[in-house]
């Protein structure tokens, strides 16, 4: 007959609490003890019982969290581990929200996040596909990446990343939706696909303000903004909200398309927003059989636009069947078909994105009140 072990002592329980508390919650990116998620840790015959308080029952990855807690709790002297998950109290959820709100934001002084606004003059040039694949390529290279789908009327990020779920809301803080190791926020997560978004200036600005300030992004390395085409309210709002933004222009080889993209660049210049470079999309058609590339349009407008702006032509992305198939399937081609011509070029562009040092312009500087008399 199996003999049950003795109860663990108080010192062992303290070590269990410390080990479990040091775990980092993947979505909230804080230690469990910082978030008040570690509840009762008690001894049972031959092992321990650990209670974890969840700030939201919709928090993703709960099974993985249970496994991580179970593994961490097996310190020396502990046999079996029983993990129980309980909803957090209302006051506890409020404390978690305060902790997240106190974390550095995208427009906080000292933030090292590189912000690229992917823009075009006209719609239909593949701007969103470029954005999605750049984000996925950067994330695959180990960077912490976020995407704001700022094309409110023509949002496509949910489709391109193959995710359809509402963000987790926690006392005034939203958690971005995660897909393919990229943090995402889009109006498409809040409305039905068949429902048109009929918003005007003030509503657009408020939505973008919430996407920047009320979403817990954590410490990102790169944030990509998928802008609507043209020079309307949305680009101007984001320039105000994110003073360190750089413009990434997407055009086709057509002169007419590049000319309109040039107007977007002029708007950026007037607003003192640097242009990081130009990506020429649909430069050619790749042959599935022989691998040859045939120009899709006459002209070399991408290079001409980059030259006139004094910025690099970052890449020429061909049209290939795998790029469009992956977009329809909701998986970035750089992950699903990394060897396809378009994916190779987009990965190269992601690896060579230029950067610039953040400035203090447009930022709110902290004020300190000194108690010393003058």
TrEMBL record:
Keyword entries, A-Z: ATP-binding, Hydrolase, Iron, Iron-sulfur, Metal-binding, Nucleotide-binding
Highest taxon of the lineage: Bacteria
Record GO biological process: iron-sulfur cluster assembly
Record carries keyword Hydrolase: yes
Molecular functions (GO terms): 4 iron, 4 sulfur cluster binding; ATP binding; ATP hydrolysis activity; ATP-dependent FeS chaperone activity; metal ion binding
Residues the record lists as binding ATP: 121-128
Keyword hit for Metal-binding: yes
PROSITE patterns in UniProt: MRP
One Pfam family hit: ParA
Function noted in UniProt: Binds and transfers iron-sulfur (Fe-S) clusters to target apoproteins. Can hydrolyze ATP.
PANTHER family reported for this sequence: IRON-SULFUR PROTEIN NUBPL
Subunit structure: Homodimer.
Family: Belongs to the Mrp/NBP35 ATP-binding proteins family.
Protein name: Iron-sulfur cluster carrier protein
Organism: Solicola gregarius
